[in-house]
Design brief:
The chain contains 10 helices and 2 strands; from the N terminus they run ββαααααααααα. It is an all-alpha fold. It starts with a strand and ends with a helix.
């Protein structure tokens, strides 16, 4: 709940939660305010986990805005229409959307669709976001079809890696929910972080790579 607090004085209508509940529910069952230091730290940690699943930070750094908006669409769909979404559903949708963008990059028009309505619903959301980036509409950075395909293949790789780790059916989705800024679930599309914070996150990702 949005009225939960961890380590600061509780205002009227708020309640205390323990650090364990904070860590478990942050960004998933708890609607955290973006200025909460625990939420911000959790978002940075989640983004680092996603980078590790993808095999390195380069794609996160280069296509951060595109990846955020694709993830944002996924998180919104899960919250509003598909609460029982699984990592395997997302992986299949990433693959189909990537193949669709690959055909667009070659000058063809063909949508790779799934007989599974759940997977297709996810794919439709991903392609909607990708198309806005391809056209540079609604303030989104204009991105060519080949780059969008690479982003979607990268997300597919992360989903496959999450499944391989066998940490549960929704490990990737749960981490993704924590990496997407709560503020942007309510407002317009921007990056998970801005300005100096964005530079700090990219630095942390690069440092994590160098330490391996």
């Amino acid at each position: 709940m949005a009225d939960s607090v961890l380590e600061s004085g509780a205002e009227p209508g708020q309640r205390w939660i323990c650090s364990q509940c904070c860590g478990k529910g942050r960004g998933r069952t708890i609607d955290c305010p973006d200025d909460c230091p625990h939420y911000r730290a959790g978002a940075r940690a989640a983004l680092l986990k996603l980078a590790e699943l993808g095999g390195g930070p380069d794609t996160e750094i280069r296509y951060g805005e595109v990846l955020h908006n694709l993830r944002l669409g996924l998180v919104r769909l899960r919250r509003e229409r598909l609460p029982d979404m699984k990592d395997s559903d997302a992986r299949q949708a990433f693959a189909n959307a990537a193949d669709t963008m690959r055909t667009r990059a070659s000058g063809l028009i063909f949508d790779f669709r799934s007989p599974d309505l759940r997977v297709q619903m996810i794919g439709d959301v991903l392609l909607s976001v990708a198309t806005l980036h391809e056209r540079g509409e609604k303030g989104m950075v204009k991105t060519d079809a080949t780059s969008l395909m690479q982003c979607l293949k990268y997300l597919e790789l992360q989903a496959a890696a999450a499944e391989k780790q066998a940490k549960g059916d929704t490990f990737l989705l749960d981490v993704t929910a924590q990496a997407v800024s709560e503020d942007f679930l309510r407002r317009a599309q921007e990056g998970i972080v801005r300005g100096q914070e964005s530079a700090e996150v990219r630095s942390e990702i690069s440092e994590g790579r160098n330490q391996k």
